[in-house]
Amino acid sequence: MPKAIWNGKVIAQSNETIKVEGNHYFPPESVDSAFLQSSDARTSCPWKGMASYYDVVVDGEIAQGAAWFYPEPKPAASDIKNYVAFWRGVKVKR
What we know:
Number of domains: 1
Low-confidence stretches: none
CATH superfamily: Domain of unknown function (DUF427)
Number of strands: 9
Shape: globular
Number of helices: 0
CATH topology: Metal Binding Protein, Guanine Nucleotide Exchange Factor, Chain A
Oligomer: single chain
Radius of gyration: 12 Å
Strand order of the largest sheet: 5-6-7-8
Order of helices and strands: EEEEEEEEE
């Protein structure tokens, strides 16, 4: 089962991830929101749309913008709406 781990804590785990461009996107209900803090960061992808970000916070340490999701994806990416992917030190392991 894919797990997203940072600073020794499991942030998300699910057998229902969707892999896009090498990234596991976790269903929103599989992500522990206690470790997420809203961020004002936004980026744009030509085919997925506008991404929103979370900072990942564990034991007072912050990985800024380490989680992202698409709240209103373009039609080609509609199956990952609100699914969460990770980077910036968050390791996804099986």
